């Protein structure tokens, strides 16, 4: 059995947190414009539109000046990337691969998705986070806001070499997809927390078929939490282990807060399905905030001074099926920045109380029961624990 990938902590890295498309999209564009050797992109959501047109122009120009440009897009997440756009990528010299294209006869195999979001430039700079190349993420409205509230991380330093390995591995694996070995889940040894508090970074992954190291790392951090566990996700349907660890931490006095989406969401049923956990979480002392201004799409966790940011929603569904990638960080500057970002978002959120739960309207309760029941049945039917 092939060993699951294992990435140690690396020292001397530099980070920059970029909040929302109006901030990170121009930086992504600029980095790709300046590429001299390689641009490697692994993304879930990619669709035709203004943002793709801008990216295409940069990639085509890069390929024309001799930069090796590789795009690995998920076959489902990129279904709205038009045929013309695919064609012009090919024609401009960009190497293009699709992870697990949807197949009418594929059955459950269609559910395995590459959900990672990773952009590498010259093997020197990595961008990791939750974005795709869609207008909702990248193109601001007249008020200067992008519809989806998102974070991306710019990383430089030794850990980038690990991201290069991650991309290369998936690029090769996608090419020889046929005849994959059967799924076999195993535990991965989590490297111990290193000494120090600056510039430390580690690649953390899940491959739903073989390992969920990213979740193991989260659970082990929460189990050791002393002060705070703040977790942001747009799709909050976690498994019982994560719910239990959050409640245990809250009961022992840790400040546990969830930052979730409010009514502005692309999947209202998922929000209702997750709300069925609110009562027990609130009773355990977990504070729940629903972000109001826009669609909150962040996937960020802060446990004391440990930060994890990337593609993982920590919901049962995607952890079971997907490839996910997060950057785990210990760095005092990043801790402060992430803390401030959470504080800003909490201030723009509605906080739930047990009183709110008791006073919920019956139509709302009905939706929670309906979508909660459907979600539970789907998990049982698909054998998701
Ligand atoms: O899967 P995410 O978290 O990248 O979000 C994309 C949505 O699934 C699109 O509906």
Automatic annotation (TrEMBL):
Domain named PLD phosphodiesterase: residues: 110-137, 292-318
Superkingdom is Bacteria
Concerning Pfam families, the annotation shows:
PLDc_2
Q: Which InterPro entries match?
A: PLD-like_dom, PLipase_D/transphosphatidylase
PROSITE patterns assigned to the protein according to its UniProt record, in alphabetical order:
PLD
Q: Which PANTHER family does the record match to this protein?
A: CARDIOLIPIN SYNTHASE (PTHR21248), CARDIOLIPIN SYNTHASE B (PTHR21248:SF23)
| Name used for this protein in its record | Phosphatidylserine/phosphatidylglycerophosphate/ cardiolipin synthase family protein
Q: Which organism is it from?
A: Halopseudomonas formosensis
Give the source lineage, highest ranks first: Bacteria, Pseudomonadati, Pseudomonadota, Gammaproteobacteria, Pseudomonadales
């Amino acid at each position: 059995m092939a060993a699951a990938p294992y990435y140690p902590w690396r020292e001397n890295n530099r980070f920059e947190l970029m909040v929302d498309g109006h901030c990170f999209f121009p930086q992504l564009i600029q980095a790709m414009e300046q590429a001299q050797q390689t641009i490697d992109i692994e993304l879930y959501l990619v669709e035709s539109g203004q943002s793709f047109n801008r990216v295409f122009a940069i990639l085509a120009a890069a390929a024309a000046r001799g930069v090796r440009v590789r795009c690995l897009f998920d076959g489902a997440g990129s279904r709205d990337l038009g045929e013309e756009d695919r064609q012009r990528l090919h024609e401009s010299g960009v190497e293009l691969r699709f992870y697990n294209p949807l197949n009418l006869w594929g059955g459950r195999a269609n559910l395995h998705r590459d959900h990672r979001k990773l952009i590498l430039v010259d093997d020197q700079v990595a961008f990791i986070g939750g974005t795709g190349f869609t207008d909702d993420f990248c193109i601001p409205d007249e008020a200067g806001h992008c519809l989806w509230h998102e974070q991306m991380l710019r990383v430089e330093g030794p850990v980038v070499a690990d991201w290069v390995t991650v991309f290369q591995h998936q690029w090769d694996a996608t090419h020889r997809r046929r005849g994959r070995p059967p799924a076999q889940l195993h535990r991965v040894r989590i490297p111990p927390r290193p000494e120090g508090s600056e510039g430390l970074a580690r690649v953390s992954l899940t491959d739903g078929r073989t390992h969920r190291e990213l979740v193991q790392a989260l659970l082990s951090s929460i189990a050791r939490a002393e002060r705070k566990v703040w977790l942001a996700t747009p799709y909050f349907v976690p498994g019982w282990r994560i719910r239990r660890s959050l409640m245990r931490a809250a009961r022992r006095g840790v400040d546990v807060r969830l930052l979730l989406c409010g009514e502005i969401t692309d999947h209202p049923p998922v929000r209702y399905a997750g709300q069925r956990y609110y009562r027990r979480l609130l009773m355990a002392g977990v504070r729940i905030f629903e972000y109001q201004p826009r669609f909150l799409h962040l996937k960020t966790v802060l446990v004391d001074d440990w930060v994890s940011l990337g593609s993982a929603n920590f919901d049962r569904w995607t952890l079971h099926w997907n490839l996910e990638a997060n950057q785990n960080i210990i760095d005092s500057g990043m801790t402060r920045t992430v803390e401030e970002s959470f504080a800003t978002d909490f201030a723009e959120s509605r906080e739930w109380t047990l009183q709110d739960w008791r006073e919920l309207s019956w139509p709302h309760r009905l939706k929670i029961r309906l979508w909660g029941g459907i979600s539970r049945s789907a998990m049982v039917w698909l054998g998701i624990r």
